[in-house]
Design goal:
Helix 1 (5-24) crosses helix 6 (168-184) and helix 11 (283-294) packs across helix 15 (374-387). This protein folds into two domains: 5-252, no CATH class; 268-387, no CATH class. It is globular. By secondary structure, it is an alpha+beta fold. It has helices at 5-24, 45-55, 61-78, 85-92, 101-109, 168-184, 225-228, 240-252, 268-273, 276-279, 283-294, 325-330, 349-355, 362-371, 374-387; strands at residues 28-32, 39-43, 115-116, 131-133, 140-144, 159-162, 189-197, 206-215, 233-237, 317-321, 344-348. Strand 4 and strand 5 (140-144) form a beta hairpin. The two termini are 46 Å apart. 41% of the residues lie in helices and 15% in strands.
Length: 388
């Protein structure tokens, strides 16, 4: 059975991490800071191999992949219950385990969702265990924050550190989740969980507030796995929209088809900078056209018989829309993305006029894919294009 590009990438990530861990991690004690003092964890080759068996197994990849996507599917369902990053920061800064009515109202006004404790949910259950794991304890679903944690400061851009569990498997799981984020080019999203005492009645006396966060690589912890094995996770609070978009990208790769090229999302800033409104006229659009002429690109249209762009003056080149502007006006939900660089391609004026408001034929679509959309060119050659 053929394996998709993403499955191969995930399988390679598992294998590479195992090999790096086995080849580079040295035996010896590691010190993990705690409020009451350092805890010593003795790392041995045996503990490393046992930890790897669970965290990134070498057998039954299909079962692993199923649990991998199941993990993030569960996480995605919790996003609806997440609070704003601003309200979570305010909750963090209360520096109290007890919530009063005044503070509760303030948090709610800032976008907090206060969720009563629920024994049927692993997230909304009062437990002292700091790290919450996903299926089979392979990945991290969330981390629980409580007042008095070691080094529990939250900086101005909502970044903080979270110390690892005091065992070798916990070390490996931290680094592997980080490794996944870097190798799969998708932010690793997890939940940050806080709870407060808030007495409603004898049965309801705990309220939870949760927010999404992502693993960041501020100190390049993956550069030396042995040195950074026991280091804390570096995390940053994010809003629900950013978390949802990252999980949507990941989910889209679950059943990816090999005949469709997967594209990493362009950042919002790049999407705006190279949108149709910014390149249809002016110097920025001319840079794109010059780059295409200098790099042997051809018109994807067949009216000119795929003539090279170098044979046209700049004035005879145009930016076409894969989904037309007229079609977007008919189905208005498309208006937000019709001018996105991934919906644009370079063509000659005659071929662009011939398409009008129709969708590209299958031959033209294939030709656009082979030539590249404006978004494709920006992903790969933005610096070259800007330099012209």
């Amino acid at each position: 059975m053929e394996i998709s590009d993403f499955s191969l990438k995930l399988k390679t990530t598992l294998s590479d991490f195992r090999n790096v861990a086995i080849d580079t991690i040295e035996e010896g004690p590691r010190q993990v800071p705690r409020s009451e003092g350092n805890n010593t964890v003795n790392v041995t080759f045996g503990k490393v191999r046992n930890g790897l068996t669970n965290v990134c197994p070498s057998r039954n990849f299909e079962a692993y992949k199923e649990s991998f996507f199941s993990h993030f599917s569960e996480l995605n369902r919790y996003l609806t219950l997440c609070s704003s990053s601003q309200s979570f920061r305010s909750a963090w800064n209360l520096r109290s385990e007890i919530l009063n009515n005044f503070d509760a109202e303030k948090l709610i006004s800032e976008g907090a969702q206060l969720i009563p404790a629920n024994e049927n949910s692993r997230v909304f259950r009062c437990e002292q265990q700091g790290v919450l794991y996903g299926p089979k304890k392979r990945l991290i679903l969330g981390v629980r924050h409580s007042e008095g944690n070691y080094g529990d400061s939250l900086n101005q851009v909502a970044e903080f550190k979270y110390q690892p569990p005091t065992d070798c498997s916990g070390f490996l799981r931290y680094r592997f989740c980080h490794y996944i984020s870097e190798k799969l080019d998708v932010p690793y999203i997890l939940l940050v969980i806080m709870w407060f005492e808030y007495r409603i009645n004898d049965n309801l006396n705990q309220l939870f507030i949760i927010a999404p966060a992502k693993i960041i690589n501020k100190n390049n912890q993956l550069k030396n796995l042995n040195k950074n094995l026991h280091k804390p996770l570096e995390l940053q609070l994010i809003d629900r929209k950013e978390a949802a978009e990252a999980l949507l990208v990941l989910d889209s790769r679950k059943d990816s088809l090999d005949d469709i090229i997967f594209r990493e999302p362009l950042s919002d800033s790049l999407s705006r900078e190279w949108s149709y409104n910014n390149i249809s006229s002016g110097e920025k659009g001319k840079k794109v056209k010059r780059w295409a002429k200098e790099n042997g690109k051809k018109c994807p249209g067949n009216l000119c018989q795929n003539k090279p762009f170098k044979d046209f003056p700049l004035s005879k080149l145009a930016f076409g829309h894969i989904i037309s502007q007229k079609w977007a006006k008919a189905f208005t939900y498309l208006l937000k993305s019709v001018h996105h660089p991934d919906n644009l391609y370079l063509t000659c004026s005659n071929c662009n006029s011939s398409l009008s408001d129709k969708f590209p034929s299958s031959d033209l679509r294939n030709s656009i894919i082979n030539t590249g959309t404006i978004g494709d060119w920006i992903r790969d050659k933005e610096h070259q294009i800007k330099s012209l």
